C-alpha cells in the first residue's frame, strides 16, 4: 500500500501480502488487486486477473490436480504450489475472482523471495500487436541472452539486518553479466555462498529442468519460477559452515605436519556412496558435514579435457542423498524451495515438441546455480585443497 492510501476493506482473516515482489500490488492500476494472505490456513489468494487469463490458469491448476495418467501433468504436481481451489471475494465492496494456493513462505520469519520470469518470448499467441511490442521491449538484455528476467525480489540482508527490495526498474537494467550479482544479493552471498541453500534450490530446479526437457503438452508464456528461503535459517547455517571450514583447515594443517599417514590423530575410513570417506569413530557425523569429497573430485577434474557434464549428471541423480546429508541433523527441515507459478498464459502445444522457449530460461537458471555451487566449493575448500 502506498503512503496515504486507504486500507482496502477485506473479508475477515485476509490482508494484502506485504512480501509480494512482482505483479500488481493493491490498486496500483485501475481495477486491479494484488495477492492476499490468509492467516488461518497458510494460504495465499492470487487474483485471477482478466477473465480469459483467469479461467485459463484455473483450468491449468485443475488439470494438474485431477491428472491420473497424463505424464506431463503428473510430473508437475511436485513443482507447483498446492492448488486449493478458487473463489469470489469482496474487496472494497466489489467481487473479485481469486485462486487459492499454498503459501510457500509460511512459517518463515525473514522470507527472501525472487520472481524469475521464464522465456525469451513472454507474450502468448493471442496477444495484440501492442502487447507483443511492449513485452519485446522489456528486460531485453536478460531475455535475449539467458531466456529469463527478474521482475523483482526481496532479501533480508544478513550484513545489515534490513529488508532490501528490488523492483522492475532494477531488473530491467540487468545484463547477462550483472544478473549474477542480483542472484548473489538474493542469496546473501556477501556473507558467503551457502552449500545447503544452493543444494535445496538445485534439488527443485533440477526437477523443473527434467520436466522442461521432456514435456511436449504445453507452451508456457510469462510463467515464473519463484525462489524462496528463510534468511533467519540461513544465518546459523553460514555460521556453522564457517566453523566447519575453520575446523577442516586446522585438521589439514595438523595432517600436513604429522609424521606420516599412520601418525597420531588419523583413523581408517570406508567408502561412502559418493566416493568419499564415510564417518568412522572419531570423525564427523552427518550432522557435522565436511565438504563432500565428491564435490572436490568434480571440481578438480573439471577442465576442457574432462567430462564435467557427466559428473554433474551423477550429482543430479544423487541429489536427494546429498541434500539430506548437507542439511544434516542440526538443520533437518528444508527451508528453501523453487516452484513454478503463473499459468495465465499456459496453452496446449500444437506440435508434439518441447517448449524450447521455456527450456532455454530454465537451463540458464540451473546453470547459474550450478556455477554458484562450484564457486561455493572453492570458497569453502580448506587452504591447499583436499588430499
Automatic annotation (TrEMBL):
<keyword id="KW-0808">Transferase</keyword>
<keyword id="KW-0067">ATP-binding</keyword>
<dbReference type="InterPro" id="IPR005522">
    <property type="entry name" value="IPK"/>
</dbReference>
<dbReference type="GO" id="GO:0005737">
    <property type="term" value="C:cytoplasm"/>
</dbReference>
<feature type="coiled-coil region">
    <location>
        <begin position="298"/>
        <end position="325"/>
    </location>
</feature>
<comment type="similarity">
    <text>Belongs to the inositol phosphokinase (IPK) family.</text>
</comment>
<dbReference type="GO" id="GO:0032958">
    <property type="term" value="P:inositol phosphate biosynthetic process"/>
</dbReference>
<dbReference type="GO" id="GO:0051765">
    <property type="term" value="F:inositol tetrakisphosphate kinase activity"/>
</dbReference>
<dbReference type="GO" id="GO:0008440">
    <property type="term" value="F:inositol-1,4,5-trisphosphate 3-kinase activity"/>
</dbReference>
<protein>
    <recommendedName>
        <fullName>Kinase</fullName>
        <ecNumber>2.7.-.-</ecNumber>
    </recommendedName>
</protein>
<dbReference type="InterPro" id="IPR038286">
    <property type="entry name" value="IPK_sf"/>
</dbReference>
<feature type="region of interest" description="Disordered">
    <location>
        <begin position="248"/>
        <end position="289"/>
    </location>
</feature>
<keyword id="KW-0175">Coiled coil</keyword>
<dbReference type="GO" id="GO:0005524">
    <property type="term" value="F:ATP binding"/>
</dbReference>
<keyword id="KW-0418">Kinase</keyword>
<keyword id="KW-0547">Nucleotide-binding</keyword>
<dbReference type="GO" id="GO:0005634">
    <property type="term" value="C:nucleus"/>
</dbReference>
<dbReference type="Pfam" id="PF03770">
    <property type="entry name" value="IPK"/>
</dbReference>
<feature type="compositionally biased region" description="Low complexity">
    <location>
        <begin position="248"/>
        <end position="287"/>
    </location>
</feature>
Amino acid at each position: 500500500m502506498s503512503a496515504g492510501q486507504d486500507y482496502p476493506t477485506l473479508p475477515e482473516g485476509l490482508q494484502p501480502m506485504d512480501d509480494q515482489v512482482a505483479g500488481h500490488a493493491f490498486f496500483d492500476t485501475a481495477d486491479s488487486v494484488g495477492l492476499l494472505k490468509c492467516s488461518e490456513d497458510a494460504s495465499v489468494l492470487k487474483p485471477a486477473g482478466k477473465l480469459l487469463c483467469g479461467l485459463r490458469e484455473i483450468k491449468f491448476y485443475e488439470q494438474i490436480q485431477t491428472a491420473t495418467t497424463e505424464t506431463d501433468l503428473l510430473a508437475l504436481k511436485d513443482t507447483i504450489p498446492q492448488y486449493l481451489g478458487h473463489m469470489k471475494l469482496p474487496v472494497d465492496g466489489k467481487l473479485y475472482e481469486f485462486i487459492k494456493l499454498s503459501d510457500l513462505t509460511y512459517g518463515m520469519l525473514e522470507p527472501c523471495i525472487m520472481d524469475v520470469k521464464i522465456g525469451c518470448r513472454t507474450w502468448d499467441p493471442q496477444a495484440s500487436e501492442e502487447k507483443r511490442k511492449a513485452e519485446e521491449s522489456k528486460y531485453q538484455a536478460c531475455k535475449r541472452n539467458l531466456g529469463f528476467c527478474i521482475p523483482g525480489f526481496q532479501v533480508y540482508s544478513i550484513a545489515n539486518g534490513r529488508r532490501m527490495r528490488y523492483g522492475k526498474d532494477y531488473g530491467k537494467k540487468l545484463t547477462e553479466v550483472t544478473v549474477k550479482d542480483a542472484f548473489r544479493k538474493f542469496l546473501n552471498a556477501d556473507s558467503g555462498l551457502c552449500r545447503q541453500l544452493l543444494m535445496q534450490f538445485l534439488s527443485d530446479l533440477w526437477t523443473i529442468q527434467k520436466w522442461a526437457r521432456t514435456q511436449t503438452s504445453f507452451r508456457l508464456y510469462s510463467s515464473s519460477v519463484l525462489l524462496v528461503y528463510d534468511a533467519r535459517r540461513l544465518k546459523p547455517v553460514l555460521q556453522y559452515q564457517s566453523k566447519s571450514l575453520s575446523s577442516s583447515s586446522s585438521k589439514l594443517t595438523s595432517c600436513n605436519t604429522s609424521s606420516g599417514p599412520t601418525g597420531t590423530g588419523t583413523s581408517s575410513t570406508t567408502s561412502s556412496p559418493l566416493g568419499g570417506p564415510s564417518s568412522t569413530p572419531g570423525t564427523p557425523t552427518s550432522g557435522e558435514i565436511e565438504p563432500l569429497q565428491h564435490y572436490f573430485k568434480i571440481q578438480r577434474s573439471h577442465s576442457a579435457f574432462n567430462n564435467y557434464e557427466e559428473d554433474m549428471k551423477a550429482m543430479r541423480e544423487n541429489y536427494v542423498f546429498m541434500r539430506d546429508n548437507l542439511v544434516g541433523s542440526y538443520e533437518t527441515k528444508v527451508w528453501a524451495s523453487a516452484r513454478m507459478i503463473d499459468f495465465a498464459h499456459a496453452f496446449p502445444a500444437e506440435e508434439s515438441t518441447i517448449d524450447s522457449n521455456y527450456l532455454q530460461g530454465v537451463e540458464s537458471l540451473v546453470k547459474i546455480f550450478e556455477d554458484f555451487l562450484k564457486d561455493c566449493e572453492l570458497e569453502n575448500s580448506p587452504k591447499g585443497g583436499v588430499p
